[in-house]
Amino acid sequence: MKVDTIVLGAGIVGISVALHLQKAGRSTLLVDRRGPGEETSYGNAGLIQREGVYPYGFPHDFGALFRYAMNNTIDASYHWSAIPKLAPFLFSYWMHSRASQHEAIAHKYAKLIEHCVTEHDVLAQEAGATELLRRKGWMKVFRTEKERDERLAEAARWKRDFDVNYRALDMATLKAEEPHLDHASLIGGLHWTDPVTVIDPLGLSKSYVALFEKHGGKLAIGDAATLVQSGAGWTVTLADGTKAEAKDVVVALGPWADVLTNKLGYRLPLAVKRGYHMHYKPQGNAVLNHPVLDTERGYFLAPMQQGIRLTTGAEFADRDAPKTPVQLARAEPIAKTLFPLGERLDAEPWLGRRPCTPDMMPIIGPAPKHKGLWFSFGHAHHGLTLAAVTGRMVAEMVTGQKVFVDPAPFAPSRFV
């Protein structure tokens, strides 16, 4: 089988890359070992984070560091056995999270973020999937004045520097908009109004795949590790033994990218943050109108078609280590006091893996050592948020068009 381009990895980023390539007139094959959108892209919090101009950094205040060191929080956990391997990455991540560097990163990163909603809107409209999008934004709720005041001051700076919009919520407003929260434990909130939320992330992925196929794109099951350079292009062996050939190949393997990039001679500083979720049926007539972050406790509640999705923070562990959903166990009883969650709807906790870089920015662009090889991974917490933006950027680079966002800050060459 010969095509113009092969995209390896059918998460939301790979799907968006393949879709944009096919729309640009490139015959494209999308290859994954599983069905589209069934790994990391399935289990996110469903946010297209227009406000997310600052990628998630590592805390520098002593109190937070001490709290994480105790390894008993909801928002962060780690496996002791993984720390020696992760230590160089974590140190580099911590250094990039210093205030001055984090601010400089944000001003580059914001160029991606500012297009996240508009680019998804285009694809969702074409795919007939706008019913999966909600334009209510999302909320942080606060238990302490200190946290409230710091986060509202931060929001004011982000409004000034990046024109992202928010509302400060007093208790009367919070009660009116989220009547089923436990208001006795809260003192107010912050409502980010620009973000769009997705009530079925897997459904959105599938709708984009359907659009890709409508434009003539093809799907196949295969192992990305079989990729080899072949003449002036690339060849990958599919599950049925067929060999697919293309001039260009895009690596969009998310947390598994290093399996292939290491084989090709790249030593990119990639690590994985793991996370868990569980769905619940609301008790009685309780309704959650917005996704809500319990800021001081570090878990997230999102209304989905499947139920109320409870998601946890980051778990630092080997990518393929067995599940250890201790953060979910810590979060569940607290979440049930904030909102009346009923029975669990999933047979077991879901585990996902987020691909991360130490400078908190994705790796997007041509591989420095190989012609026709392109990278598109490392989006960390913003895979869904930045998928449509990234897809358009990669397609424009591969087809030689002017790229609508300057790709230089995200180039793979910064690590080579």
From TrEMBL:
<keyword id="KW-0560">Oxidoreductase</keyword>
<dbReference type="GO" id="GO:0016491">
    <property type="term" value="F:oxidoreductase activity"/>
</dbReference>
<feature type="domain" description="FAD dependent oxidoreductase">
    <location>
        <begin position="4"/>
        <end position="397"/>
    </location>
</feature>
<dbReference type="Pfam" id="PF01266">
    <property type="entry name" value="DAO"/>
</dbReference>
<dbReference type="InterPro" id="IPR036188">
    <property type="entry name" value="FAD/NAD-bd_sf"/>
</dbReference>
<dbReference type="InterPro" id="IPR006076">
    <property type="entry name" value="FAD-dep_OxRdtase"/>
</dbReference>
<protein>
    <submittedName>
        <fullName>Amino acid dehydrogenase</fullName>
    </submittedName>
</protein>
<dbReference type="GO" id="GO:0005737">
    <property type="term" value="C:cytoplasm"/>
</dbReference>
